[in-house]
Amino acid sequence: MSLTPRSYSRYAQEALRLLGKEIELARKSKRITAEVLAERCGISRPTLRKVERGEPTVEIGVAFEAAAIVGIKLFESESSKGLHTQFLHASEKVALLPQSVRLKGRREPSDAF
Questions:
Q1: What is d(CA 96, CA 65) in angstroms, rounded to the nearest whole number?
Q2: Could you give the number of structural domains in the chain?
Q3: Quick check: pTM over 0.70?
Q4: What are the residues whose beta carbons fall under 8 Å from the beta carbon of 54, sequence distance 6 or more?
Q5: Could you tell me if residue 57 is inside a domain?
């Protein structure tokens, strides 16, 4: 059984490339070698190259960890406490929504937001 390659929206591809380039810029600006950043992230240097190129197959946690280590703020909060508060707020909103979403008829979901 062969799987077809996953396709990503143009927006997702551009966002990944931007995050990767920002990680590379911050790493180099702080004079951190690729070897050191890879080691601090617990990944190989080739995986770090994938992160910095914005390849979508890299685990999101790896990309977020690299961003955190070089000081990139991915959300508006300056601290993990602020992130936790935002998480609780989002959880409260989700709790107010229906448990599941059902489509009337059988339509394919759109990736257009």
A1: 31
A2: 1
A3: yes
A4: 13, 16, 17, 18, 19, 20, 21
A5: yes
CATH number at residue 47: 1.10.260.40
Specify if 51 maps to a domain.
yes
pLDDT, tens digit, 9 for 90 and up, residues 14-59: 999 999 999 999 999 999 999 999 999 999 999 999 999 999 999 9
- Which residue segment(s) compose the domain that 43 sits in? 10-95
**One-letter amino acid of 44:** S
H or E element, residue 53: helix 45-53
Per-position DSSP letters for 23-52, written without gaps between them: HHHHHHHTT--HHHHHHHHTS-HHHHHHHH
Burial class for 112, CB neighbours closer than 10 Å (0-12, 13-18, 19+): exposed
Contact (Cβ atoms closer than 8 angstroms) between residue 90 and residue 54: no
